[in-house]
């Protein structure tokens, strides 16, 4: 029996499959496409996503394939969000197209033993008390897969979500975004260009190999059928010229696509033995590349919890915490991107004035730049602790602490199968060898006020703090023992 069945071999499905396989779980991943979609729209990879890849030792594969820019945007305002001061090893955005991301992730997943089946389509499911039966249509005909769990990573129109009876709510479309990969004979001098005028907006990004992503927004109501109609080359050149005064020598496109601006959030991320991640759980307005990144973070949260459940050491309620933690994050991301919709899709004098004011504030108020940058980059996510007396660090993302032995936290949080126990005091903790933890002893370097008095911390496999203490001596030992009891059956 396949232990976990995943539907959808996009970035979310591939990362989830890899996380499970890395923890020793058997995975079968089915994908109805027979080849990768060259017109996949995503190309923005934020710092938190780079940290996830770094924690598994593969970030260099992505960095070598793309290029970085030290900023992002809020609502395509003229003044951009400066990432330089973010507390991360990766204070920048990585520009790398989704097809190349999928190539790297697929190679990684296959190396871990994930069974990936292209040309195999999900057609239905039946939940049983101890398993879920997945109906599949493949090149050889119809067949069934039985797994302990099924995860839908199959896009915003998710057949898995529909078959599981999970509803979704959100906002209707107010327009259609258009994008293409093109050759520009006279591209902008900067590799990340945006413009806004009463005629609309325009975004041009250098994606390498002499190609650029060029796109904008058509501010009129759109529907599902309308989004399938491509802009012609002449229409795209006309749009660019109307906004920027030039078409930048647009002469050839490799693909073009449009998408409606409707947003949706699944009512629940779990229905029995069926779970959702990525676009299946949330359709996010494309402001700042949040969709792909949020899906990756879903998979990173779900992967270790599902693996711990499958491997028999998770507390009974651990898998329920996936919805409890990630559904609010999905709602928060949608709120953040919806707030940018008027700035990006309305071209009245009033909105033009609002854009000017907000842009000036981002440039002049460092704290506003920091708040928006941390949100956009995915670094500000906190999973609220259940215990009212928990240490203030609990639930927060652990920064990439460095230690005197040359190690760093991202290098130590290297598996979804174990927690990391940081022993930061001079007297070693006594830890039960059966506990699902890796212990690292040493003093963190640098001056981090939030961590200055911490004597021990338990880091979850996804890099968030599960527990921390400033106790010493026997009190510290007792607190650590109590914390370790909560992470396993």
How does the SSE layout of this entry go?
Layout: E1 4-7, H1 11-22, E2 27-31, E3 44-45, H2 47-55, H3 59-65, E4 67-69, E5 71-72, E6 81-82, E7 93-95, H4 98-111, E8 115-118, E9 121-127, E10 132-138, E11 141-147, E12 149-152, H5 159-163, E13 168-171, E14 176-184, E15 192-197, E16 200-208, E17 211-218, H6 233-244, E18 250-260, E19 263-266, E20 270-271, E21 274-276, E22 282-283, H7 290-310, H8 320-338, H9 341-345, H10 349-364, H11 366-377, H12 409-412, E23 419-423, E24 437-441, E25 456-459, E26 465-469, H13 473-485
Parallel strand pairs: 1-2, 1-12, 2-8, 12-21, 23-24
Antiparallel strand pairs: 3-7, 4-7, 5-6, 9-10, 10-11, 13-19, 14-17, 14-18, 15-16, 16-17, 19-22, 20-21, 23-25, 25-26
Helix pairs in contact: 1-4, 1-7, 7-8
Question: Can you describe this structure?
Answer:
- The chain has 489 residues and is α+β, with helices and mostly antiparallel strands.
- It folds into 3 domains: 198 residues, FAD/NAD(P)-binding domain (3-Layer(bba) Sandwich); 85 residues, 2-Layer Sandwich (Alpha-Beta Plaits); 77 residues, Glutaredoxin (3-Layer(aba) Sandwich), CATH 3.40.30.
- It has 13 helices and 26 strands.
- It has a 6-stranded mixed beta sheet. A 5-stranded antiparallel beta sheet has the order 15-16-17-14-18, with helices on one face.
Considering the chains and any ligands shown, give keywords for the structure.
30% helix; alpha+beta; 3 domains; Glutaredoxin; 26 strands; 489 residues; FAD/NAD(P)-binding domain; Alpha-Beta Plaits
């Amino acid at each position: 029996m396949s232990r976990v069945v995943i539907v959808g071999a996009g970035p979310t499905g591939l990362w989830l499959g890899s996380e499970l396989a890395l923890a020793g779980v058997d995975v079968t991943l089915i994908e109805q496409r027979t080849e990768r979609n060259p017109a996949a729209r995503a190309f923005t990879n934020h710092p938190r996503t780079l940290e996830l890849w770094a924690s598994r030792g593969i970030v260099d594969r992505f960095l070598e394939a793309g290029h970085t820019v030290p900023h992002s945007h809020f609502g395509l305002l003229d003044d951009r969000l400066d990432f330089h001061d973010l507390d991360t090893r990766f204070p920048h955005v990585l520009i790398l197209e989704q097809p190349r991301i999928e190539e790297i992730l697929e190679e990684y997943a296959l190396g871990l033993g994930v069974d990936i089946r292209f040309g195999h389509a999900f057609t239905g499911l039946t939940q049983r008390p101890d398993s879920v039966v997945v109906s599949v249509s493949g090149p050889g005909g119809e067949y069934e897969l039985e797994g302990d769990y099924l995860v839908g990573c199959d896009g915003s129109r998710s057949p898995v979500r529909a078959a599981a009876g999970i509803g979704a709510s959100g906002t209707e479309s107010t327009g259609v975004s258009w994008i293409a990969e093109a050759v520009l004979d006279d591209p902008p001098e900067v590799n990340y260009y945006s413009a806004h005028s009463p005629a609309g907006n325009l975004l041009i990004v250098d994606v390498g190999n002499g190609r650029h992503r060029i796109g904008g927004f058509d501010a009129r109501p759109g529907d599902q059928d309308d989004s399938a109609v491509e802009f012609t080359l002449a229409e795209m050149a006309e749009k660019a010229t109307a906004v920027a005064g030039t078409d930048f020598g647009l002469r050839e496109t490799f693909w073009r696509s449009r998408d409606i601006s409707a947003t949706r959030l699944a009512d629940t991320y779990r229905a029995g033995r069926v779970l959702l991640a990525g676009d299946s759980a949330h359709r996010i307005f494309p402001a700042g590349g949040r969709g792909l990144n949020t899906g990756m973070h879903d998979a990173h949260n779900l992967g270790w919890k599902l693996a711990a459940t499958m491997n028999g050491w998770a507390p009974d309620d651990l898998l329920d915490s996936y919805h409890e933690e990630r559904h609010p994050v999905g709602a928060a991301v949608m709120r953040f991107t919806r707030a940018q919709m008027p700035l990006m899709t309305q071209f009245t004098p009033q909105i033009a004035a609002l854009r000017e004011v907000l842009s000036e504030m981002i440039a002049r108020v460092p704290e506003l730049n920091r708040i928006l940058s941390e949100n956009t980059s995915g670094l500000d996510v906190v999973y609220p602790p259940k215990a009212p007396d928990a240490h203030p660090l609990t639930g927060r993302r652990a920064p990439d602490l460095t230690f005197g032995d040359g190690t760093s936290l991202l290098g130590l949080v290297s598996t979804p199968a174990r927690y990391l126990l940081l022993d930061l005091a001079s007297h070693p903790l006594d830890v039960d060898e059966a506990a699902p933890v890796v212990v690292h002893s040493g003093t963190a370097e640098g001056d981090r006020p939030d961590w200055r008095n911490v004597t021990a911390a338990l880091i979850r496999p996804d890099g968030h703090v599960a527990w921390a203490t400033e106790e010493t001596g026997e009190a510290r030992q007792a607190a650590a023992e109590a914390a370790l009891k909560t992470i396993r059956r």
